[in-house]
Write a structure and sequence with these properties.
The complex is a heterodimer of chains A (about 500) and B (about 140). Helix content of chain A is about 75%, strand content about 0%. Chain A has about 500 residues and is an all-alpha fold. Chain A has a domain of about 190 residues. Chain B contains 6 helices and no strands. In chain B, helix 2 packs across helix 3 and helix 4 runs antiparallel to helix 5. The chains are: A mainly alpha (about 500), B mainly alpha (about 140). Chains A and B meet through helix 1 of A and helix 4 of B.
Amino acid sequence: MIEQNLSLLLVVIPLLAAPVTAILPGSRVPWLCTLIITWLCFLLSIWQLSVVIDGNIISYELGGWSPPWGIEYRIDALNAYISLIVAGIAAITLPFALRTVEKEIPLRQTGLFYAAFLLCLVGLLGIAQTGDIFNLFVFLEISSLSSYALIAMGEQRRALTAAYQYLIMGTIGATFFLIGIGFVYSETGTLNMMDLHQLLLPIYDHRTIHTGFAFIVVGIALKLALFPLHLWLPNAYKYAPSVISVFLAATATKVAVYAMLRIVFGVFSSEFVDITPTNHMFIVLGLSGVIVASIAAIYQDDVKRLLAYSSVAQIGYMVLGMGLATTLGITATVVHVFNHALMKGALFMACGALVYRVGSSQFDKLEGLGRKMPWTFAAICIGGLSLIGVPGTAGFISKWYLVIAALEQQAWLIAFMIVLGSLLAVVYIWKIIEIMFFHADSASTTAVKEAPISMLVPMWVLVIANIYFGLNTELMLSVANTAAQILGVSD
Amino acid sequence: MKHNLILRVIAKYLFPVIALFAFYVQFHGDFGPGGGFQAGVILSVAFIFYALIFGLDTTEKIAPPYFLRIMASTGILLYAGTGVTTLFMGGNFLDYDLLSVNPIEGQHIGILLVELGVGITVSSVMLIIFFAFAGWEKND
């Protein structure tokens, strides 16, 4: 029974757990409940990937209404892969959450906090699982609404402003997306993605379809913080509670990248994309995102904000891969979604550990901390190397594929800009290292101890994963390659 | 509003009428316009109206915050629980056909339960939002 309902259970289990968690008392009980649920989802998502990795497709009809009339969950290798990333990051974040949440979230809100976390997980998994474009919008809203609430629970009052800013931008994005769906629906009369793909084929020249497509692309671009629509992101990541920074940075924008891939190449197609200026737009915005956000990161005086700007730059790489629109380019994007989740997860966890011990992520509070917290510091170093793309780390693989994809099209300038982006990453990672290791201790850091073991273990699991997936590339590349072929991108 | 006799009397008479209308919208939702969301809002309006006349503290005695939180969760659980029940009966999620021997009757039972869940959650969440805004000076 479990296997035939696998795709649905991934969404329903956290959905059922969320209201229960909301009324559980204390801080440990809701945590434990969430921990069990996330690990359950993680195991289910591994199972699901193992079912579809050979090219099988799971199709699930909600309510027994057959598609295209009913909602269909349609799982192929790409969906299962994204679900695995989301559930995996959630599972690894939860052990880390215990201590920081106890410190940062008031006791009477803890149950609600974990409930919102589970709802966010529902939304993100739902986006990955569903095969219905309107259902995707609903899940996008579930994940966004819960993340507004989660960000607003940050310790400082400025978290409210950050969450409000994200709320406005996110709502505009969602509205654009919905308007786009409306246009497409009015032309085709269907919301099922596979059905849409078929029905759209003969009407690629319709003006309505082009308008709808533009609305959808801009709407999702807001959600994935594509430069120059990224302005909500740095503050949202900075003022959110540490756990939420880890979880959102590692999953939320990645899922939006998936939604973009699925809709641009799965619902529409590369033939449609070729008659629109989408590819050029992706390449130009992706590259300017890489350069501008990396330069902005260099000038930050706060680790969390620096990493947030670096996230915008990394999203630039993913969008660039989409813009290249070849099998290699899409493979690079899909691999980078995974690798970036690993590196940003590790880095934001290290950042959370610093905040846990010092109470701030401002540079002037972190001077000399590298010597007091060697394990956390080492995690930042290795995570940073992966972010730069040094061989032997996960980051290298995706950058390598991206450069090859660019060179394949004789796009020397693009390849050069990718390498330039990596050099800028060297500068901002070095900035953290310099302040944490080569500066003398400041008054606030003399009595600081290493982070607790419950935070170090998840952090180092991700750090080691960064190295493991940098050396053993076969697994992720084969999945990513299958995913690229599913999207039907030709060379 | 302590001394405003007319308002107090009318409020007491209107409360059951509004609540009854809410239940009409709730249970007539299968056949006509209406349903859980609208009914939930109307039911919460009855409480909000009561709160406007008799004050927040009196209303919080009828509907305490912890109770509202439990009700909000119960509604979702009722909705999702209906779906899970059909899963255990060997069908797909929310496949109402299985809820009874007769599929059409099953559809009726299913939509009734699901809409009831929506109604409970919506009315309690509306009240939670109202209390949060109306009592924010008290809480801060």
